[in-house]
Amino acid sequence: MLYYLFTWLHNAFDFPGAGVFQYISFRAASALITSLFISMIIGKRLINFLKARQVGESIRDLGLQGQMSKQGTPTMGGLIILAAILVPTLLFAKLHNIYVIMILTATVWLGLIGFLDDYIKVFKKDKRGLAGKFKVMGQVGLGLIIALTMYFDKEIVIKEKVAQQAYVPSTEIFSVEGNTDKTTLFSKKEIRSTKTTIPFFKNNEFDYSILLSWLGKGYQKWTFLVFIPIVIFIIIAVSNGANLTDGLDGLATGTSAIIGVTLGVLAYVSGNIIFANYLNIMYIPNSGELAIYVSAFVGACIGFLWYNSYPAQIFMGDTGSLALGGVVAVFAIMIRKEILIPIFCGIFLAENLSVVLQVSFFKYTKRKYGAGRRIFKMAPLHHHFQMSGYNEQKIVMRFLIIGIFLAVLTIVTLKLR
Fold first, then answer.
1. Torsion of CA 282, 288, 292, 298, to 10 degrees
2. What is the pLDDT of residues 131-157, one digit of tens each?
3. pTM of the complete model
4. pLDDT top residue among 6 and 345
5. How far apart are CA 39 and CA 140, in angstroms?
6. Could you tell me the CA-to-CA distances from 171 to 106, 167, 186, 189, 351 in Å, in that order?
7. Which range marks the domain in which residue 374 is found?
8. Is the four-CA dihedral 90, 96, 102, 105 of positive or negative sign?
9. pLDDT at site 187
């Protein structure tokens, strides 16, 4: 909203300083500061509000060190995160941008699903919360919206590189000078595409339509049959991965902040034709605006971490964890970096896999031997280390260090081919 106000002041009255709102870097920094301020201010007030109404977490005694001391800690802190993301984005982003509209939709959508789950647990005193099938239905619904928009919306486009040795009329290309003696040519024509980025390969673009090439001529028109299920799967997997990671004080929040910084870098370079040329990556017009959202996302996570770090004064609950994971998935899909998710979301992936492996192996051994056996002492993975005698703060810190390493590796893939 402030973007439109100051743009009008700049154009109509040449208002001093108003032109700075045209710069993504300024608006991203403003969103970061605003989200930090909101989360810090709202955080304390919400904690006091929830404590006064005895809205606390119900903890099961699983024999974990220090687990029962968390009994009664206020939950539903995800409301802080959502407010600290949405308000700065609404203030500083271009709200007509299709990517901003999609990511805001994902945030509110998954936030509501998580809120319903927490509400049932806390106020209805039903520890089961929202039935799993309804959570999955909500995630599938969001996946359909995102996939169909990505596939059919005319504003979701890319600009393709043009081979220098090929003859292309000069009216159909524009050039970008790089730091070498070569010039990259980009087509002026914006096209809808189902291409995405593959790490570690020189020609690092993959088109989902290739998966249907066996259908013969005209197979491209059926690409949505594979694209939609892939998008739905990614959203469900990453959203649930973040939910499973939210088991130790500050773990999910800190991990999400690191992932947010990584996505911010990827979005900025993908939406800037100069950097896209230098890094030889896909150029996605208008996606740079997502840097404002992700700045608010990072600020919200860091601000919430102030209260969520050990010993936690408040838990985010499903209101926060489902939204954070889902937003990460949608964001990666929009900037066409979803194949990089196993790298920069490595913590979420490990937590997810530990549960899948534990349950699958237990069921298999129970059928075969009559008694179930376990791979880990407890799943998700962070509880395995707790059962092994590691201190909670040490586990969280080491997971965050691994998260930073994975973030750096993800950014390095932009040039490592």
1. 20
2. 889 999 999 999 999 999 999 988 898
3. 0.90
4. 345
5. 30
6. 39, 12, 11, 10, 51
7. 2-157+192-412
8. positive
9. 64
